[in-house]
Amino acid sequence: MTFDAFKILLLPYYERDDEMYFQAIEYKSDLEKNWLSLLLKIIIVPEEGGPSVIKLFVFHFTGIIDFRISVGAWSIDIYDQHPLLLNHLNPKGILFFRGTAMNMDFVLLDLWRAHYSIFGDWIPFGSPDEYYTLLKGGYGKLTEGHWSMIKSFSDVLHKHGVIPNPVETTTSNSILNSHTLTHASVSMAPRVCIMGKSYVIFKELEITETEVPPDK
Q1: pTM greater than the 0.85 cutoff
Q2: Which of 17, 114, 185, 192 is most buried (CB neighbours < 10 A)?
Q3: Three-state SS at 141
């Protein structure tokens, strides 16, 4: 089933204001073939009392680009626009620079603020020491990523008297940023499945309800 069909299946529980807890029991992946299967347990606690209902679903993701799975209970949803997707979408670019700033601490603080305004807590800012060393050198490549970040960082550098040189590097392929993935389907735009602080960036998803965990 699709994710929309999955939400429709759970709709009666939402309409009764039942409490629902989502938990990843286990996952399996094959990064060479770019798939990940997640066994999802849903505990439904009726609002009017009575025994809890437990449902199990297998989420089979293909065209995997990046993921982070952690233990815990959370809500679940899928987005086609999210900070986690930015580095995998066009336009992209590289930021070079020339010059030094009078107060490097203020530059780093403003860069962090610019980064947080775009990515929030989802993507780490990086090492302040590395940025400091690069900027202290007076020229070079500062960073690369989505054009929104490149533009924002360029504005910060310009504000502090450093000359930015942003270069657009947009290509037809998504950037693969971790887990040493070697290829991914480019048949459709990536989406992200958010599960608390866990996530899976993927191209396609098939959901199957199951009575028992696979291979158990």
Answers
A1: no
A2: 192
A3: strand
